[in-house]
Design a protein that fits this description.
This protein is α+β, with helices and mostly antiparallel strands. The chain contains 5 helices and 4 strands, in the order E-E-H-E-E-H-H-H-H. The chain has a domain at 31-119: DNA Binding (I), subunit A (Orthogonal Bundle). Helix 2 (76-84) packs across helix 3 (88-98). The model is unreliable at 7-16 (pLDDT under 50).
Length: 130
């Protein structure tokens, strides 16, 4: 099945003047990253090869695409802690960010910017304290 793009469908925030007349689209591909996870075969944080999941660097709910540059292999336990445990992002964010290849970092930065990396991964690329 070929990837498709979908409209984000988000309305402008209340109190704002104007919304983007054409909301950003997202690439959707249910098979994205599967081969990458199989090929790498190890969690980017722990190095273990048990129960790997496809982790979106920019979450789908945040407009992240289903493309290999946005997906890395992460142990299922780390993924669950990232999503649900208090402090999960703070605990694992720097380790995930530091495990990325340049093209994966480029994807995140192009999609969301430097401030997102600071807030989401706890890594300040501009050299200040976070």
């Amino acid at each position: 099945m070929a990837p498709v793009t979908v409209d984000s469908g988000k309305a402008p925030r209340e109190g704002t003047c104007c919304g983007d007349p054409k909301p950003p689209t997202r690439i959707v591909d249910k098979n994205a990253g599967k081969e990458k996870v199989r090929r790498e075969g190890r969690c980017r944080v722990t190095g273990y090869s048990f129960e790997l999941t496809r982790f979106h660097l920019v979450g789908r709910d945040l407009g992240g695409d289903d493309v290999d540059d946005n997906i890395v292999p992460i142990d299922q336990e780390i993924h669950m802690r990232w999503e649900h445990a208090p402090g999960g992002k703070k605990r694992f964010g720097p380790a995930i960010w530091n495990s990325l290849y340049a093209w994966e970092k480029d994807y995140v930065l192009e999609k969301k910017g430097v401030d997102f990396v600071r807030r989401y991964y706890g890594v300040d690329l501009l050299g200040g304290s976070s």
